[in-house]
Amino acid sequence: MTIRFVESSKLPTPWGMFVMHGFSDDKLDKEHLVLTMGDLSGNQPVLARVHSECLTGDALFSMRCDCGPQLQAAMHKVSIAGRGAIFYLRQEGRGIGLLNKIKAYHLQDCGADTVEANEQLGFGADMRDYSILKPMMDHLNVHALKLMTNNPRKVKALEDMGITIAERIPHQTGRNPHNAKYLATKKGKLGHLFEDESDA
């Protein structure tokens, strides 16, 4: 594993003051972040979101997905708790990259769903690698998470790496007319757990 810690700094946000920790993956030439709030030491599980980068949703306010609202909701929940971490992983487009995601969006414009579009481009439905999390968590001395996610595959991937998931916290927000098919595919083909269809 080639993940190394670089530096930390304060990050004031509308949800309060976070500390931003920068990590470098020298092997893949990628940079990752963890936003933390409060004292993460001790044995209590840490409220956490493992969020894969989505430039279109996080920064450009795209309504094709629920990523931007999920990120903001996670920051809000951590600020309310006063203690937590958001792992921001640079794995755009479920790991296929920004330009390939645009190609996938074009295929979706022509009728494919997200899984079909990825497969037509020669990729798996989800190409993300969560192994980069372990050295980041070790650096922060975090061993157990209360994970904000609807994705049981993410829970299993982290547990398979030896990370304790003390609790899965449903994290549903951002449904709109433009992402209804996207969310239906998440549930039907990727097994995401949505308790309330009106707010998935």
Automatic annotation (TrEMBL):
Known pathway: Cofactor biosynthesis; riboflavin biosynthesis; 5-amino-6-(D-ribitylamino)uracil from GTP: step 1/4
Top-level EC class as recorded in UniProt: hydrolase
Annotated keywords: GTP-binding, Hydrolase, Metal-binding, Nucleotide-binding, Riboflavin biosynthesis, Zinc
Domain of life of the native organism: Bacteria
Catalyzed reactions per annotation: GTP + 4 H2O = 2,5-diamino-6-hydroxy-4-(5-phosphoribosylamino)-pyrimidine + formate + 2 phosphate + 3 H(+)
Binding site for Zn(2+): 54, 65, 67
GO terms assigned for molecular function: GTP cyclohydrolase II activity
Entry annotation: catalytic residues: 126, 128
Protein residues bound to GTP: 49-53, 70, 92-94, 114, 149, 154
Enzyme nomenclature, EC number: 3.5.4.25
Cofactor: binding details: Binds 1 zinc ion per subunit.
InterPro entries for this protein: GTP_cyclohydro_II, RibA, RibA-like_sf
Pfam families: GTP_cyclohydro2 (PF00925)
The GTP cyclohydrolase II domain, residue ranges: 8-170
Stated family: Belongs to the GTP cyclohydrolase II family.
Protein's job: Catalyzes the conversion of GTP to 2,5-diamino-6-ribosylamino-4(3H)-pyrimidinone 5'-phosphate (DARP), formate and pyrophosphate.
NCBIfam families xrefs: PRK00393.1 (NF001591), ribA (TIGR00505)
Protein name: GTP cyclohydrolase-2
Taxonomic lineage: Bacteria, Pseudomonadati, Pseudomonadota, Gammaproteobacteria, Cellvibrionales
